[in-house]
């Protein structure tokens, strides 16, 4: 398979973002977003997905984090779509359960070519370290719309909001790692009865 890398730049009046991904990396992340808790979550994707991420974002944080978080999701989704290419030879589906102390989350992903998000998460607090956790849904919505994936995110239990969020992102990274894995028996084959994704 060819190198599965991509870099996408997105510039608007609200944000300037560059996202580079290597789907066959070692789990390293270089993150400059101005939003520390989001960076902590993005690092989970890299480490648990064995995906190299390099994200630089400058946004209108003087207003709030919304535009920057959403646009990082959009730009990252575009980079994943470009890096995965025609999807021939990949597993396509991935799932993971990840615990952190009392919290447990499940994430299931399908590189279906169709955007869809089901986000069943009730956070126990509204913020962590000043970060509005409602924005995580905006991040994932931006990602699925532009990566063209179907994504189910379920926080099954948890009392600590930090733990809830971290289990979601760890499970997301692990599910991504499974879905993007190459199956030698499917070399050159699109994993769909339609013949295209």
TrEMBL record:
Pathway(s) this gene product operates in, as recorded in its UniProt entry: Amino-acid biosynthesis; L-histidine biosynthesis; L-histidine from 5-phospho-alpha-D-ribose 1-diphosphate: step 6/9
Molecular-function GO terms, alphabetical: imidazoleglycerol-phosphate dehydratase activity
Coiled coil region boundaries: none
Database matches in InterPro entries: IGPD_sf (IPR038494), ImidazoleglycerolP_deHydtase (IPR000807), ImidazoleglycerP_deHydtase_CS (IPR020565), Ribosomal_Su5_D2-typ_SF (IPR020568)
GO cellular component: cytoplasm
Domain of life: Bacteria
SUPFAM superfamilies the UniProt entry points to: Ribosomal protein S5 domain 2-like
NCBIfam families, A to Z: PRK00951.1-1, PRK00951.1-5, PRK00951.2-1, PRK00951.2-4
Similarity annotation: Belongs to the imidazoleglycerol-phosphate dehydratase family.
Protein name (database record): Imidazoleglycerol-phosphate dehydratase
Provenance organism: Seongchinamella sediminis
Gene: hisB
């Amino acid at each position: 398979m060819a190198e599965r890398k991509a870099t996408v730049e997105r510039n608007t009046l609200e944000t300037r973002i560059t996202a580079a991904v290597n789907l066959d990396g070692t789990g390293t992340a270089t993150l400059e977003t101005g939003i520390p808790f989001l960076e902590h979550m993005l690092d989970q994707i890299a480490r648990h997905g064995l995906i190299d991420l390099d994200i630089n974002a400058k946004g209108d944080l003087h207003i709030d984090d919304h535009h920057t978080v959403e646009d990082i999701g959009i730009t990252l989704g575009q980079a994943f779509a470009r890096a995965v290419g025609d999807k021939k030879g990949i597993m396509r589906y991935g799932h993971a359960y990840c615990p952190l102390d009392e919290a447990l989350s499940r994430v299931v992903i399908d590189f279906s070519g169709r955007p869809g998000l089901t986000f069943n998460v009730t956070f126990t607090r509204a913020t962590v370290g000043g970060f509005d956790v409602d924005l995580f849904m905006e991040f994932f919505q931006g990602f699925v719309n532009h990566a063209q994936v179907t994504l189910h995110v379920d926080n099954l239990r948890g009392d600590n909001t930090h733990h809830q969020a971290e289990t979601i992102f760890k499970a997301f990274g692990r599910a991504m790692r499974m879905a993007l894995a190459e199956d030698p028996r499917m070399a050159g084959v699109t994993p769909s009865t339609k013949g295209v994704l």
